[in-house]
Amino acid sequence: MALAKAAGVAAARLHDARHTAASLLLAQGVPARVAMEILGHSQIGLTLGTYSHVAPELRTDAAARMGEALR
Hints:
Low-confidence stretches: none
Strand content: under 5%
Largest sheet: none
Oligomer: single chain
Structural class: mainly alpha
């Protein structure tokens, strides 16, 4: 922890890294099932419900894709 502080890096828990990893994987379009495997989860609900967050740009992209599909 002292090394991180000396380097000016904010303190973070390993658990925080799992949240970040799940969110980044999904934001990059990695299928949820693949993210689940990478994170070592046994159930998809844990990956999608607990560790991932929907970024606003993902909602916008999803709406645009739906619009294209309906045209």
